[in-house]
Task: inverse folding
């Protein structure tokens, strides 16, 4: 009882059914002779082809169809998107709640938003009190690092001084050595971005000097 893979005897049922080996069932030419196993009984032309179909083990056909269906469903599973848990910080990189008044949200431009990323990766542990990012080490440090939003301390510093202290560390700028140097970790763009973020969240608000100081001054 050899399964007939090619049904040449039945006109209209002569096409090979690649889905169901042994079943000459796929018939696109004859209406009523439909595909996939079940259609073979509907083949209008009597003949050996039909009986060849009928001799094929139905179990084999059914197993194959089940396999195809399983393969199909697993593919659609892979295409489905796993639900991503929203990160409260990543959710709003284009804004930052006012640290003194959480009902007030400060919009951030592109550079400030880049700075926010840098800040919440490297600086938050010392320059913020506890945040959704985690607990802070600020209270353990002496001197206490200024809060990033502390405009009363930071507004007085020029961008150049900020750049120097961030790049070379507190010790190099005559400040506490517990402020690490970031020049080997961050590039100049990151550093300028994080300064822009500090400026954006400053309270009282930061006002850029009307006449910037000489380019190479440190303060
Ligand atoms: C390990 C703790 C720590 C981390 C992390 C840290 N800082 Fe600091 N930072 C300090 C301390 C302490 C000071 C205060 C130094 C002083 O006042 O003598 C300071 C001071 C500063 C100052 C100067 C303030 C002033 O009054 O002159 C700036 C600007 C600054 N940090 C920016 C940053 C930035 C930007 C990052 C992240 C890239 C960062 N810090 C990460 C501890 C830290």
Result:
């Amino acid at each position: 009882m050899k399964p007939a893979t090619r049904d040449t005897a039945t006109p209209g049922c002569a096409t090979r059914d690649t889905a169901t080996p042994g079943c000459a069932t796929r018939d696109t030419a004859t209406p009523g002779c439909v595909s996939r196993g079940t259609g073979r009984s509907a083949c209008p032309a009597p003949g050996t082809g039909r009986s060849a179909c009928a001799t094929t083990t139905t179990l084999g056909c059914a197993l194959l169809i089940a396999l195809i269906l399983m393969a199909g469903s697993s593919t659609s599973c892979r295409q489905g998107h796993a639900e991503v848990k929203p990160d409260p910080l990543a959710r709003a990189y284009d804004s930052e709640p006012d640290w003194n008044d959480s009902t007030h949200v400060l919009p951030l431009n592109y550079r400030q938003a880049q700075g926010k990323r840098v800040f919440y990766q490297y600086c938050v542990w010392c320059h913020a009190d506890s945040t959704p990012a985690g607990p802070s080490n600020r209270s353990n440090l002496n001197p206490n690092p200024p809060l990033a939003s502390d405009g009363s301390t930071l507004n007085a510093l020029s961008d150049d001084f900020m750049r120097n202290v961030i790049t070379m560390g507190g010790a190099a700028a005559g400040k506490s050595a517990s402020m690490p140097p970031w020049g080997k970790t961050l590039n100049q763009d990151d550093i300028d971005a994080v300064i822009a973020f500090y400026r954006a969240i400053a309270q009282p608000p930061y006002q850029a000097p009307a006449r910037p100081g000489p380019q190479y001054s440190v303060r």
In short: The chain has two domains: 1-77, 90-201.
